[in-house]
Amino acid sequence: MLSLTYRLSPAQSNPKIENFFRNRSTDFSLRKLSVTCIVNDLDDGQILGCFALAHKAVLIPSSGMSITSRRKP
């Protein structure tokens, strides 16, 4: 289990985002719903930012597309 031991300054803190990264991001990764990345400063290890990428398929209905458009990669 991943344990995040950092704390953002009050000016940077967003409780909803911090809660997601502390409590839900690991579960989302294990269930393959998203990938969470934390960007650190190489010199002092300070967290510069963080983001999560969701795995979600986009379905495009082919009913309004021509046969030629459907075949294009």
Summarize the entry for a quick read.
The chain has helices at residues 15-30, 67-71; strands spanning 34-40, 47-54.
Describe the structure.
With 73 residues, the protein is α+β, with helices and mostly antiparallel strands. It has one domain. The chain has 2 helices and 2 strands. It has a two-stranded antiparallel sheet with strand order 1-2. A hairpin with a 6-residue loop joins strand 1 and strand 2. The protein is elongated and about 55 Å long. The N and C termini lie far apart (40 Å). The mean pLDDT is 76.
Secondary structure layout:
Blueprint: H1 15-30, E1 34-40, E2 47-54, H2 67-71
List keywords for this structure.
single chain; about 70 residues; alpha+beta; 2 helices
- What's the structural domain tally? 1
Q: Largest sheet, described in full? A: 2 strands, antiparallel
Provide the succession of SSEs.
Answer: HEEH
Enumerate how many helices there are, as a single number: 2
Q: What share of residues is helical?
A: 25-40%
Q: Structural class, judged by helices and strands?
A: alpha+beta
Strand % is 15-25%
Widest beta sheet: strand line-up: 1-2
- How would you sum up the global shape? elongated
